[in-house]
Design a protein that fits this description.
heterodimer, A: mainly alpha, two-stranded antiparallel ribbon, 2 strands, B: 148 residues, mainly alpha, 6 helices
Amino acid sequence: MRGKSELKVHLLALVMVIIAEFIGIKRFQVGPGTVLLLPMLYALVIGMFLPVLRLVDRRDMDTASPFIGFAVMYLTAKMGTNIGPNLPKILSAGPALILQEFGNLGTILLSLPVAILVFRMGREAVGTSFSISREGSLAIVADLYGLDSAEGRGVMGGYITGTLFGAIFNGLMVGFLVATGIFHPFSLAMAAGTGSASMMAAALGPVVAAYPEINTELTAYAASSQLLTSVDGLYMSLFLGIPFTEWLYRKLGGKPAEVNSNSAQSGTGHKGGAKK
Amino acid sequence: MKMANVMRIFVVTAILSLIGNFIGFDISPIAALPGMLILFVLVILGYWLSQVSPIKLPSIAYISALAIIASIPGVPGADFVNQYTGKVEFLALTTPILAYTGISIGKDLGTFKQQGLKIVLVTLLTFVGTYVGSAIIAEVVLRLTGVI
């Protein structure tokens, strides 16, 4: 019975949400950044144990998968309502701030060839490579491919990696870039706004530490860039990032999409995703 | 999927979020209900638009656009939208997503383990690519425009 399975999935999700939120957010300071453990991670980990405990079967998994796409829509709406109030500020940003947003696409040129040519990855590479895998990217992949597809595994893995190690890694990387002296501190500050608040803070830290006398300007540049990314990130990825990644994936000879994937339509149930 | 089924899932997800919002952030479901209803309306409208619009875009593109417009200061009702959606925490909305993902992910665990380290390494490369890409463009434009 489909209805029985659905009820079971909702009740399980309810219990998982309650447990996860009861544990709450945990922070650990490690070197230049913070490791953040969020309730959503606990929910995911609990879910991984459900089949082991024989609490869910294959049918329940299939029942749950389209719900992901619907749950993501609330997050998308919430992100949108965070953008509106800041829109007037965005319109006054300078050309450097606006153009550097396209740099966020630069990641595809670096990460996708490595993923395919060096690591021989399949469609997971598409989900991981097109962005830094933050919430907006989860929403896009959930909508286009479904989060339980190969692309979904890619972006989920990226999301978990970023949540756990993103701040630390960015702190170390920028510390290194500051030391090389290649870039002007303004450029480094602008680049720090990549769409994740904790990563921005970690990336800005070494720049501010090296140039404390222009601290306020650096912070303003980073915050504006961060704001811009939060506004354009979703559309940039949807209209430029994903199509470019798909194109480059084919050019590099990546394996074709799984034909038997049950998730092509499961994201939201609407047609017109990037995958047939 | 039938609209009735879709509505049911939207309602259940909203309830899960309200409960998470209460336990995790101490915001009572009654205080958060108006904000949740606003998000609900935005989601339904955006989803509906994606189904009927001649321009085929993913529903999140519509939902995001509607939510941005509804919250721009000066737009009628924007203050109301901003005041109440502020009571629904961003992170409380992420937990149900990963709960459903957790339930459905069991069948992919094998592949996940097999690909895990590669995904971690490629993700770290995306941080480098995004950051350095932006820094290069910023550097070039700042020099061309004479700011630095």
